Amino acid sequence: MKKLKFLAGGQPFRSTDFEVLQNANLTGVQQLFNGITSAVTILSGIAHDSFAGFDPATPFTVTAGYVYDLTEICRVPTASFTYDSSKSLYLRRAVVETSERMVGSSLQYVMTEVIYNLVYIATAALGDIPLSTLPRLTISTSDTLLLKQDTHDYALGTGFTSALAHGMYCFRNGFFDCMIVCQFNATSSSGTLCTLPANMRPAFDIVGFYKSGSTIVPLTIRTNGNVEISGASTSVTNLIVFRYSVGVTLSA
Hints:
The radius of gyration is 24 Å and the shape is elongated. Helices cover 7% and strands 44% of the residues. The protein is built from one helix and 17 strands. A hairpin with a 4-residue loop joins β15 and β16. It is mainly beta. The strands form four sheets. Strands 9, 10, 11, 12, 13, 14, 15, 16 and 17 form a nine-stranded antiparallel beta sheet that branches. It has a three-stranded antiparallel beta sheet with strand order 1-3-4, with no helix packed on it. Strands 7-6-8 form a three-stranded antiparallel beta sheet, with no helix packed on it.
């Protein structure tokens, strides 16, 4: 990395001197993350604990963080939204002017910053990036493979009631591994148990199993997020603990 020499007696600075320092930092960052191929990668933060159930009056907060967009490290400010099942989280690139200074006889902005704002919308605009698709730079961390609670309290469909104080619990990690956990009672032996959020939906239908009383019976997770079950017991509690991946795709 290039550095300026500070000489005794003072030294005249030119704009090109600061350009050298700025470019040296950018080059260092680019070389550090040289192996990243994703257009945008989450470096830290940008997480939320839950969607606070289905209460439309209860907002949820996404924490601040940083991303790398193959050019530089960019800040993502924190944001709060009110839950809406028709909407999804996206990142939207923006260039903001900062640091107002007196230049000549007028105030001017003398710095720019590239940031990515969180937006929560039903229909994405051109250039918006779905937050659920972004990889995380967690390879060197100890909790890379840990499944962490992503969203919870997803309401169960008609004919099914939770055996606990919540509906469907959903877990996910940085490698697109997911797990659903649910204890439920049934008045219907088959149907759609619940609909999973967008970032828990597989690229193709997945068939798994769950415990209906003491019997193992099948379930299917559809690409639209529907968890379809059959053979549910209507006399004893049913249990689902099923792990799958949304990062696997099929090619011709």
